[in-house]
């Protein structure tokens, strides 16, 4: 059972207490070297569709609708395999969902952390 699911920016310092580190962005973070990310997984297929991501544009006023649409996408067949992988990773003691987004509280990582908590 998961003891902790956290989310934060991929650019922040790593910590021995991180547990499994999973990047949940569709595109690789700008300026980040792969070996610097210290990832266990990059689940690009769990990220919102390009259409949804572009519509949202990280506008906080659209977050509630973004969240609703993204949760609907997570139920679709296109996300099923990645969602299963993420749920398996969430079986560890600690899981950190990483994103390059500046406003992490209004990101897919925040939605996924809540979704995983409710799924367990």
UniProtKB/TrEMBL annotation:
InterPro entries: YeaO-like
Top-level taxon: Bacteria
Protein name (database record): DUF488 family protein
């Amino acid at each position: 059972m998961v003891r902790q699911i956290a989310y934060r920016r991929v650019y922040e310092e790593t910590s021995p207490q991180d547990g499994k580190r999973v990047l949940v962005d569709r595109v690789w973070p700008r300026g980040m070297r792969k070996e610097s990310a210290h990832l266990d997984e990059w689940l690009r297929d769990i990220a919102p569709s390009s259409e949804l991501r572009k519509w949202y544009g990280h506008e906080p006023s659209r977050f509630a609708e973004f969240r609703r649409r993204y949760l609907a996408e997570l139920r679709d067949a296109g996300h099923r395999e990645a969602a299963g992988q993420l749920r398996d990773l969430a079986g560890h003691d600690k899981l950190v969902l990483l994103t390059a987004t500046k406003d992490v509280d209004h990101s897919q990582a925040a939605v996924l952390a809540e979704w995983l908590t409710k799924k367990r």
